[in-house]
Amino acid sequence: MSLTVTPAALAAELGARGLVVLDGSVFQRPSPDLTAMLQDSARASFEKHRIPGSVHLDALDWLWDRARGFRFALPPPEAVAAAFAAHGVGEGSRVVLYDRVGGNWAARTFWTLRWIGFDDVRLLEGGFAAWKAAGLPVESGPAPAPVPAARPFAPRPRAGAIADRAEVLAAIGDPRAVVVNALSRDQHEGTGGLTYHRPGRIAGSRNLPAGLLGDANLSADAVAALAAQAGIAPGQRVIAYCGGGIAASNLAFNLLRAGYADLAVYDGSLDEWGRDPALPMETGPG
Q1: What percent of the chain has pLDDT over 70?
Q2: For a pLDDT cut of 90, what percent of the chain falls above it?
Q3: Which CATH number does 160-282 carry?
Q4: Which residues of the chain form CATH 3.40.250.10?
Q5: Residue 264 pLDDT
């Protein structure tokens, strides 16, 4: 099954039985002093204009376990499945995801579903911007409450889809694995941009910025070429990270499209790693 769908193809499917279209947008912006990433709900933007019949799933309320010690930490699989069920996603659903922020949050929602074992999910190529550019219909005004799924999805977690700090630490220097930073080159080198507690990158990690990957619309061959340039070899286990696991999800999603199979997102990313001075980081070209 394709991992993406074009705006025209989605428009032809709207209203079909079992189809759930989710807007996973969250607005993020760096603080003025570049020491923290701030986030806001995109609910008001969703109510201003959206794909007809779509449902807003706000990760700030539903997919962030605030009892854990880092930003956007995933809740347990059962809680994640219950959150999706409350928004209409259950056994037999077909899900299409989009966002209005360049694809990172749609990919984060995709990777969360993949982690709990839900596979019938696609991303909208080009996101909401492409939908509007195609002149397709939009809906405005307060959205009705989502209809809960009649049969909630029973999670079947893929243990390897999410990595923790211990696995990342073990992967450093292991030729069978590669740790890849999805943040910008400046952030990777520690020369600019937002700093997550300490400048730079996880020691030994490669860099493939999620900003190069488009909004689910870069070809699989183009993604594979970028991965090769970044030093990501086929057959390696790839652990993607960023500041809080969001851009990393976009990287993991695109590598999946490009044929990479052994993929994980480091959930804590630099928001966890950078807090602990015992965990190795480095700056400079690399």
Answers
A1: 100
A2: 94
A3: 3.40.250.10
A4: 4-157, 160-282
A5: 98
CATH of domain 4-157: 3.40.250.10
Q: Is the pLDDT of residue 221 over 80?
A: yes
Query: Mind giving me the DSSP string for the chain?
Result: --SEE-HHHHHHHTT-TTEEEEE--EEEEE-TTSS-EEEEE-HHHHHHSBSTT-EE--HHHHS--TTSSSTTPPPPHHHHHHHHHHTT-BTT-EEEEE-SSSSHHHHHHHHHHHHTT---EEEETTHHHHHHHTT---B-SPPPPPPPPSSB------GGGEE-HHHHHHHTT-TTEEEEE-S-HHHHHTSSS--BSBSSEETT-EE--GGGSTTTTS-HHHHHHHHHHTT--TTSEEEEE-SSSSHHHHHHHHHHHTT--SEEEESSHHHHHTT-TTS-EE-S--
- The pLDDT assigned to 204 comes to 97
Q: pTM for this structure?
A: 0.96
Token pair recorded at residue 88 = 């209409």
pLDDT tens sequence across 171-193: 999 999 999 999 999 999 999 99
